[in-house]
């Protein structure tokens, strides 16, 4: 029984040493000089479900989205209210 284990250990060690190493795809990319090009992933949960989804965008895209939401909110808050008076 010990011989079988030793043999299996030797075979697996030889296979692992001969196998190519797999590095993640993002490790091969050169680091960008601009920090705004860095990808940032965020988890979001939609209303009505308990499952999360992941959204990945660059820092510049997240900043543009936040600015657009700020403009939309400002427009909604500053919009004049229509008053209807019935006499």
Give a structural overview:
This protein is of the alpha+beta class and 87 residues long. The chain has a domain at 34-78. It has helices at 2-18, 25-28, 59-78; strands at residues 39-45, 52-58. A two-stranded antiparallel sheet has the order 1-2. The radius of gyration is 28 Å and the shape is elongated. The termini are far apart. The mean pLDDT is 78.
Would you summarize the structure shown here?
The protein is 47% helix and 16% strand. With 87 residues, the protein is of the alpha+beta class. The model has no long low-confidence stretch (mean pLDDT 78).
Number of helices: 3
Give the % helix.
Answer: 40-55%
| Poorly predicted tracts of residues | none
Strand content: 15-25%
Q: Tell me, rounded to a whole number, the average pLDDT.
A: 78
Number of strands: 2
The largest sheet, given as strand count, sense and whether it forms a barrel, is: 2 strands, antiparallel
What oligomeric state best describes the polypeptide chains here? Answer: single chain
Keywords summarizing the entry:
single chain, 87 residues, alpha+beta, two-stranded antiparallel sheet, 3 helices
Topology:
Layout: H1 2-18, H2 25-28, E1 39-45, E2 52-58, H3 59-78
Antiparallel strand pairs: 1-2
